[in-house]
Amino acid sequence: MQHLAVREHQHRFFSGIRVLLGVIIVGLAFFQLFVTFRGLDQPAAMDQAQIARQIARGEGATSKMLRPIDVKGMDTVKKKQALNFNAFADTNYAPLYPRVLSTAIKVTGYDNFESNRMDAELSNVYGGDRVVASVSTLFFLTSILLAYFLCGKLFDEMIACTVVAFMGLSELMLQYAVSGLAQPLMMTLLLGAMLCLTCAIRHNEEHQQTKCALWSCLSFLLVALLCLCNWMGIWIALGLVLYAGITFKPKGLHAAYGVIILCFLVLLPALSVCAPTGGVTDKFLHAVYFGFGGESGNQLMRSTAEASVNFNNSNFFLRLFGYTFAQFNTLYTNMGSIVVTPFFLLALFNRFKSTAVEGVKWCTFYMWLFSCLGLALFGETAPMGASQITILFAPIFAAYGLAMVFNLLARLNLGKDLKALRALIIFCMIIISSGLFLFQLPKQLYLGLWTSARGLPHYPPYYPPKLNGDLHDMTNQEDIIVTDQPWAVAWYADRKALWLPRSIDEFTTVLEPIFGRGNQGIQGFLITPTSHAMPSGGIAGIIMDSGDFAPLAMEGKILQLAPLHNIAFADQFDRHANEQTATRTLSSLVSSKGQYPYRNFLLGADIIYYSRTPYNKR
Asked: What CA–CA distance (Å, rounded) separates 440 from 171?
């Protein structure tokens, strides 16, 4: 009877903890979404959002953001036939997530641009941003629920509740929750796959091979869906294939099942998506350039040929090996600064009694190790990014790390003091892991309540009201805007936007003839703080980033420094250092003497739209 009373007391205690955690986490998620939300700030989120809007309109997976490398690639595949830029196929993103977003956009009516225009007097945050962020927030909350079930199934209630607290109070995870990126959905699918794998391992231990095969196939299915959210998920799938091949009996059979599922659900869609601009091989090489090129990967997207960007292939495999193990150095920050995540590596040396716990541990390790290789190959190091997948493993790493800490404490033979010490350690770890977020919370609350009427945009470089309002009004939907933030123009202004090339020669001799064959005109150039406020390295950084268009990128800053002189800086670049070249000069293209002579100041000199004819702003 006493034992039952203790269990009943523990049940009520953990029930209260679950309710409290649920209220806190849901409250924080909605606080971020409706009070402190400043709009989207990830280019990939805006880009996928505008593709999703195209899907919601019934126009398929087409894009209004045009990359020069894709324009040239599609022109080559079409053998220089006229391209239809009103239906320019997207070949850069996995197909599932934009379709998930398209459902939310369609349901909320944001596929109709005109009926949901921004009113700058009321809000600086675009309503469509909140719709996209709501989708990622919903999947974030779902992933927390699945993490609770998985950790409870593998360990116990205390570890499950603690992992939930880590996730809900992690600043990085909360940023992903409102980022509009696919990571929250990917985490949901990965945790679901791990739950299925747990069942498969237990059935394999009980020699129930049919049930084991069904659960393992279901885990492969969920990982395949993860790959269709982001192609980086393929590295995770490779780890699962390896684990299934060496663990389940008969050896190799489950891995074969997994390969078949991945080929049908991932490889075939990948071939179809990449075909319009040259195929999977070209896209893979572009991704490698992105990671190992001597210059920024963005510069490749803004060029028309790989030869335009230097590729540093010296000691390639040595650098790849070094970059792979460099992921160990960023493990803590890339997993949301959760203090126990590095202890997962110690857990590898501890053999757990449960076969399922041991199996999930090694499967997670294989998937993470392959992910490190993928991140090294494609050069992703920042904690926040469209291709950053380290964060997906944070709940599992935290659970095993916490279990390892508890195991070490249990070996100290503390007796009755063990529970109190364990509770104290949990409290300290939560405070350490969420310290930065909790420290900033009062400030965020103050700013959120103070500016809740209009909101604070992510400026610089994004100022949605001007793109959604003035830029949309002074441009047409037929012709293209050349700009340094095409993802924002495509999403907020609903206009076709070409990523500003770095080379005037490539623009005039390669891209303009392609546009000419497609009866596609260029209506103007938009320069924003993306060019003159974001690059590191000052003037040298602007020159490296903008290439031949660097004087145009710097013109706004010069006007700000000398507003009374009204300097047309681009006018000064009316000749080449090499007089033998036949390339057009910058001043003949964009200046007071060129094709686009009129400067329209959308937000002072910070955002300038260069056009053929003058416009009167509303």
From this structure: 10
